[in-house]
Amino acid sequence: KNNNLSSIKERSYNGYIDRNSMYNYMMKYAETYNNDEYLSFSGKGGDCANFGSQILYAGGATRGGGAMMDNAWRLWDTKNGPAEGGYGHAWVAAKYLRGYIIRNNENLGPQGHVIRYGSSLKKGDFCFLDIHKNGGISHTTIVSTPGPNFRICSHTANHKDVPINTVHPYGKNGNYRSYVTLTALY
Predict the structure, then answer these.
(1) pTM for the whole thing?
(2) How many CA atoms lie less than 13 Å away from 104 in the CB half-sphere?
(3) CB within 8 Å of 70: residues ≥ 6 apart
(4) 3-state secondary structure of 153
(5) CB-count exposure of residue 45 (10 Å: 0-12, 13-18, 19+)
(6) What DSSP state is assigned to residue 176?
(7) pLDDT in tens, 84-121
């Protein structure tokens, strides 16, 4: 385990994205939870962003960064945040995770940007959804298999390599999907 943490820390300084490690992690824990290392937020607002954050960490991102959103510092961390167990809002809430990824310009944590077409997403990229039909981000999914009807993994509800159109058909639920491609994991 310590060797794994060393390699993650080493990768974190150059922005390298280990998409294969991300994929392996999501396949292992899509239908189960890694409760040995992380809290579960199922039944407490949902575990989708927490699962997405775990995948980012498995891919090489370093915890501890944050960004200003809604007039507050939203931390991407599992030890120093205001949420249960010291988790930060950017680690556990879908809208803050998305906001952090696209606003982060420091050499710490995940970085990415919004793209127009889901068919351009790569393995390990994100599709954030408006499942409450209110124009906001309320669910995090992670791309497991790229393509026009890309496949996703998620928690709450648990999905493993399921086509996005099965989970969230375009044209339903407010038509809202936000596609975020990763550019670096520091």
Answers:
(1) 0.91
(2) 30
(3) none
(4) strand
(5) middle
(6) -
(7) 999 999 999 999 999 999 999 998 999 999 999 999 99
